[in-house]
Request: fold
Amino acid sequence: MDFEEMLRPKICSCGREHCCEIKRVDIGSGILSRITETTKSYRHILLVADENTYSTCGAQVEATLGSKLEADVVFPGDTLLVPNESAIEAIQGKLTANTDLLLGIGSGVIQDLCKYVSFEAGHPYHIIATAPSMDGYASKGAAMILSSMKVTVNAHVPEVILADLDILKNAPMALIQSGYGDILGKFSCLNDWKLSSVVNGEYFCPVVYGMVEEMLQSTKDLGPKLLSRDPEAIGRLMEALIGVGIAMAYVGNSRPASGSEHHLSHFFEITGLLNNEFYFMHGTDVAYSAVYTQKLREALLALDAPIARGGHTRKDWEAAIRSIYTDAAEGVIALQEKLGWYRQDRLPIYKEKWPHIKEILGEVPSSEALSGYLASVGLPMEDFEQAYSPEKIQNALFYAKDLKDRYTVLWLYYDLMR
Reply:
């Protein structure tokens, strides 16, 4: 993948200029040796890692940085690291007036924390990837949990991404599976983006859509090779994950990479944290959830025409939100009150555009086909259905949409099938 070309600003046929402010992306064997070069203009570097990611290359990185290393923050490796207020404060507490760079060693949460804190402090950050586990490496959005709400905070991209295949290929298999799952979820989110452009008139870029679609198609069959830790397959997956992040930077938000499947994943994470219950890694939940959002499309495709059904009253909805989201309920209610989407009547649009809507819904592979891709990388649907009760999955299908300000198939399903 030609990242140098992708990182050049370009005027798109959609009418917008697409750009990504990342200066450098290096993927390959032995890439870690380039740290001296990539950090040459910095003198006071704050290193951020957890004990697990630090063990992969932390000592080597510190030795390379030498006197440039101002301080480090190494979170415990035996407890779940959450990108919340306490983790933010732990990093901010090590910043000084001289700090000029944050250097993260890790993947999802470390990446988001460095992105958030560096942006708030007005510093650049670099990331040394330790796993091909998610698509946020090159995106502007930091996925945080603030006031018990899963929120994507608009921040900035890293200056440099270093991804050494000698490290990535030895990542825990669960992280590799998660990265593959995050890519597989693009079947769902791309469809949601196109659907929203028809129903809501949302901005849609066919070039960016095609870019993400190409990355999806190039990685969807890699499951067996990823299980065997094939370096070429690991590299292709990592390229796709970073490429998708660049696509998000092009658009300025996560729309090309996040839709209904991510909303379900956020639901399972938030309710898991609130209730001290198990939830899968982000990308794994995304992939499993994509199978279920596709089941919704299949149910909608069986409708001859859109017909509004009797829904929940406001009282019933609020009661459900308070029961499900507990401490986060007020934030969820406030978001939907601000959006006003429950007060909108979308049925006329559905009736007018139903043939086009059905055409879009029919573009995604079947839920059975998606389950097959997951099984190929060692993620059988039975694991998901045993981990989450039918009631929890059904609640996710109805109420995960309330966590976000984004139209997806979850709203279409709620409007027509509740």
In short: The first helix runs from residue 3 to 6.
